[in-house]
Amino acid sequence: MEPGRARGRLPKPTIRFDPDSGIALEGGVIIIKCEARIDGLKRFHIFKRSEPIFKVTTDSNSTAVFTITNVTSKNNGIYRCVYYKERPSPIRSEPSNIIRLTVQAGIKAPLSILQPASAAVIKGDNLSMSCTTVTNGWCFFYQDYHDASSNLPIAEERSNVTVSITTVDFCDQRSYSCQCLIEYNGTKAYTARSNLMQVNIFGRLPKPTISFDPDSGIALEGGVIIIKCEAGINGSKEFHLLKGGEQILSAYTDSNSPAVFTIPNVTSKNDGIYSCIYHNDLPCPKASEASDDIRLNVQAGIKAPLSILQPASAAVIKGDNLSMSCTTVTDGWCFLYQDYHDAYWNLPIAKERSNVTVSITAVNVCDGGSYSCQCLVEWNGTKVYAARSNLMQVNIFDRQEPKYKPAGTGSSNKIPVALSLVFTSFVVLILISALLGVVLSKKIPATDQPRSQGETVSIQPCPLKHAVYYLIYAKKPKSVNVKL
Question: What domains appear along the chain, each with residue ranges and CATH number?
Answer without folding.
Answer: 14-108 (2.60.40.10), 112-202 (2.60.40.10), 204-302+472-483 (2.60.40.10), 307-397 (2.60.40.10)
